[in-house]
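> forwarded from #structure-qc
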């Protein structure tokens, strides 16, 4: 006898933000923030069938209006971005436009506003209950501040989504950033708002841009304890990063009790990324996605919006890391042993030097060395739990304890035991 499948057994509805127009966010042929990262990620998620499931909705990203952008950015900055969206725009140092990090190009405003609109629309879908989880891997523009572009970021889509959730009625929103770089723009925008907790784990600002994000940055006068920073030493690796995440994030999320969790998954923490030195693996980044999804279920009513972020190895790292993220968000985790579809690998083989942002290292070695064959890296992601003990001689433990000492007592938590 065949029994009908119960509604409870059906996968929860999820959303993936995507449209080819997102590839228009392109500073120059040689800029590290290359749209190829997004194209290859979409192609890999599609090749693995992650976008075909009935419970997965493809969410078209609208271009955010000036009024929507002005909920987190100053009108003067938005006007400056519009003015810079032309071929011969002058350098605008005051707003961070036309710089080496953020060159201008004709589609600057619209392409950046589309990314922001996509994450904002995903937040609306999660809050309304239309979907339980959503991901915009083109998003994660966490360096953009209220009135200044920075670090390859023009409009801060994560901040726009947080503001929209608050306007829709969310009482508390948590934002967790695991990019190699400090989520300084998002932190700054909500630094004095007690309704928003920003948690950033990143390589220390002593050695890496933007030079901020230390343990003593804990929030403004009206929101002390809602900015949390774990400034990790270079070469932290999977075990250290996961140890830090588990020693700080779940304890604070449980205490803060957010209505929604927003996460930023920059994969520039990988050992093969040219711009940072944390030395994680794809396997470790995948585990972080699982952990953050679990914490969304446990502490944020299952409401989870994930974004991409940094990540500048477009062949070996970004497509795998963010395809794993899409798999976790949509409830279709991809085993690490999964072979990468040959059609995707063949597409990569056909790419020319003009497609790879002038980085000649991406052409070094044969195809097997350059182009991954499976979805994992056979890395050891075992990590030592904080409950096992604190090693005062370990630089990672020193960093963890610095954060716990600064922030945990502000939430009634013991910095030694939680």
């Amino acid at each position: 006898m065949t029994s009908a499948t119960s509604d409870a057994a059906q996968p929860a509805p999820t959303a993936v933000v995507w449209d080819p127009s997102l590839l228009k966010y392109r500073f120059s042929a040689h800029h590290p923030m290359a749209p190829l990262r997004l194209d290859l990620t979409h192609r890999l998620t599609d090749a693995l069938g992650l976008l075909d499931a009935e419970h997965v909705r493809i969410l078209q990203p609208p271009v955010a209006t000036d009024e929507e952008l002005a909920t987190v950015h100053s009108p003067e900055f938005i006007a400056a971005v519009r003015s810079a969206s032309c071929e011969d725009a002058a350098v605008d140092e005051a707003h961070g436009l036309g710089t080496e990090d953020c060159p201008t190009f004709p589609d600057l405003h619209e392409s950046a506003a589309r990314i922001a609109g996509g994450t904002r629309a995903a937040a609306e879908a999660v809050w309304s209950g239309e979907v339980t989880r959503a991901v915009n891997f083109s998003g994660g523009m966490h360096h953009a501040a209220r009135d200044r572009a920075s670090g390859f970021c023009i409009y801060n889509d994560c901040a726009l989504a947080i503001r929209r959730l608050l306007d829709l009625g969310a009482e508390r929103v948590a934002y967790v950033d695991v990019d190699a770089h400090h989520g300084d723009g998002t932190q700054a925008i909500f630094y004095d708002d007690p309704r928003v907790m920003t948690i950033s784990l990143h390589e220390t600002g002593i050695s890496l841009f933007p030079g901020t994000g230390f343990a003593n940055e804990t929030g403004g006068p009206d929101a002390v304890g809602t900015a949390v920073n774990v400034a990790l030493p270079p070469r932290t690796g999977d075990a250290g990063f996961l140890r830090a995440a588990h020693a700080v994030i779940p304890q604070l999320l449980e205490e803060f009790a957010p209505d929604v969790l927003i996460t930023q998954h920059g994969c520039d923490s990988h050992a093969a990324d040219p711009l940072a030195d944390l030395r994680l693996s794809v396997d470790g980044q995948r585990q972080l996605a699982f952990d953050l999804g679990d914490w969304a279920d446990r502490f944020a009513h299952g409401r989870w919006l994930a974004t991409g972020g940094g990540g500048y190895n477009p062949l070996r790292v970004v497509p795998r890391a963010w395809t794993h993220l899409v798999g976790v968000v949509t409830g279709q985790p991809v085993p690490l042993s999964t072979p990468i579809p040959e059609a995707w690998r063949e597409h990569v083989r056909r790419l020319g030097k003009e497609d790879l942002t002038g980085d000649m290292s991406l052409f070094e070695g044969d195809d097997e060395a350059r182009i991954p064959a499976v979805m994992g890296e056979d890395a050891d992601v075992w990590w030592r739990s904080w409950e096992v003990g604190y090693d005062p001689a370990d630089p990672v433990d020193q960093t963890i304890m610095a954060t716990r000492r600064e922030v945990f007592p502000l939430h009634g938590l013991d910095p030694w035991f939680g």
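QC bot note: Residues 108-128 form the longest helix (21 residues). The CA atoms of residues 243 and 253 lie 16 Å apart.
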